[in-house]
Amino acid sequence: MRTANVLLGAGALLSATLVAGSVDAQTRGERFRVRGTTDNEEPTAAEATRLPARRFTEAPTGFDSLTNGYLPQGPAFDTLNEDNVKALRSFNDNRFVFEEVEKNADGLGPVYNAQSCRECHQNVATGRASQIAEHRTGHLENDVFFESLGGSLVHSRATNPEIVERVSYSDSVRTFRISTNTLGDGYVEAVSNLAILGVRAAQPAALRGSAVPTPVLEASGQVRIGRFGWKAQHASLVSFSADAYANEMGITSPLFPEENTSSGTFVGFGTPYDSVPEPEDDGTDLQAFADFMRSTKAPSRGPITPQATAGRRSSRTWVATRVTRKRIARSRRARRSTAASSRYRMRSATRSFIRTATFLCRTSAPATAFPCRPRQNSPGRRT
Predict the structure, then answer these.
(1) Phi, psi at residue 265, to the nearest 5°?
(2) How far is residue 119's CA from residue 114's CA, in Å, rounded to a whole number?
């Protein structure tokens, strides 16, 4: 447990301080542009000798809404309210902020999907995946994907009926994405880049995914391997929280200071639809969201029954079979390609030989030098 807490603390060092000054001058696209390379994030041999021996244990699991030890449990959750809650103080305080319902005065919207983190991430315990889905749309032109006017995310709610977003008829590419699990994400954040790349390298080549480099927004764009979000577009929980706060609840922060549009129309501060200036949150809520997720236990497995063990073996067998079939298919395609190439080369060589022989037969003086040339005194022969 102590080792796990140390790892969580190391993962949180990247997001201890929000650097608002550097992000305000950048557009959203510029902030997500990858600059530089990823570090291994593992200690060097010299550093390792100065560090205490690392002992790895299984992460605590469960859906009991108890801290994993990263933060103290804090006051009883049922005793907290808007007047006595203190963000960043404890697990229960941060859980309260995570579950808190946002209002218009807090900067909600003008276009949004939910009023609380809990709306999308709650099932049995706060932080778990749910059945809530968001809508992504766009269209293709010459096989190139173009987002909808306000971006690929179409918000399902708004603070004013005039700006409710609707799917354009021309946007024929449409899909729903269900909310992801956040329980135990602190352990995922603490995993080094080198460890992720090592896991990827050990996977079968046919099933190996992509390691996506992504900038850590609160660390001036420092590059890490992405691990959060449907597209692994974030590498830290503070960046992940800032993205969700802006895109799902419409609340801007130092890391996401721009308000979303309504189908391409500006509806932010200065318009009749938004009375709260940007940024609508100073970054405290982002840190509270991130610290709450870092303090959660990993999802627990069900009972390990003989059926579960058999299912695990069956799954591994299925993966191995799938990889083997892909290898066989590639081998067959390669053999067919080689055979076809050999036949083509043989036909080409034969045609070349016939053309050469015919040319020599027609141009050589001695009639007997090339049997392929018909004798002029042989009746019935074709010339």
Answers:
(1) -95, 130
(2) 6
